[in-house]
Amino acid sequence: MEFNVKKLASDAGVFFSRAMQFTEEKLGQAEKTELDAHFENLLARADCTKNWTEKILRQTEVLLQPNPSARVEEFLYEKLDRKVPSRVTNGELLAQYMTEAASDFGPGTPYGKTLIKVGETQRRLGAAEREFIRSASINFLTPLRNFLEGDWRTISKERRILQNRRLDLDACKARLKKAKAAEAKAALWSDEVEKAEHELRLTQTEFDRQAEVTRLLLEGISSTHVNHLRCLHEFVESQTNYYAQCYQFMLDLQKQLGSSKGEIFSGTFVGNAESASPAATTSPPAVAAATLPAVPTIPVVPTIVGVPNTVAEGVLNPSEVKPPASGTRRARVLYDYEAADSTELALLADEMITVYSLPGMDPDWLIGERGNQKGKVPVTYLELLS
To answer: pLDDT per residue over 93-107, tens digit each?
Structure first.
């Protein structure tokens, strides 16, 4: 019991001495031992590393999980050392809704078929997103958290110890200075000077030892940067694979929908042409007019034996289509396109073709020409040039 009381009294005395020294330094009434420039640079570099690591970690978490409630839930599970429950991604949920809607609308209808195709792609996108989040969490977020919760805590602890050792050292320097000043006035203070010098030697040794420990930890920040650089490369690789998968999934879906559009367009064109009035068939859609200048109106004429009438019959025969005198444009092909039938023109990425529209055409399609070849091409695969 007596030992504990003495220890508490000693600790209180040390705390009071440090508090006094810190206060006097702030008021400019006491000298402060300055660390060397290299040490100060190490401290600044460590603080910078810690601050930016926190910001990058937080923003990456937002990127991977935009829902703040979900982030809080995941944080609590991690702190409780429990496995985070699997969560359905937005893409997977959308895929589920689309599939159920297709079942209600009829999987054999054009809308139902398209919902099934888009829903399947959304499911694949959701699965790719899940894998990207898992990979990024393991290879990028976890190392950043380990640094903040492990290495940085150790560095912070040793820095606090070093700060206390410095305060003790400067307090001993101040006591020695006072003892020497008193010794100059009376020889009775010689014992105090000797005692102060002994304490100074001890505190200097402890300070130097702690400074070396802290210096080694701070120099280890360079290894932390190397580790984080490696993790950053892995994060970029995961993100690249994710977006490449998404691009390929959407490209495949776009091709499927392009083929479906051709089928729907052909059926709609035939049905409408047989029942439409001349005024209706000669008015191109507003969207097509905004995309390409409309060619002169082609009136519907009676069918003459031996003379093809593609507009009246509703069947588009590219070999019989004549380009308008004006209104043609050049276009660059963005993606490869495989023709669904003989009325379409197959495309290769980056090639240049001539395009124009015809009255009554679906606004999502144009007539494309490449040399002696011509046929329908989807607008979404083209970049129209001025």
So the answer is: 999 999 999 999 999
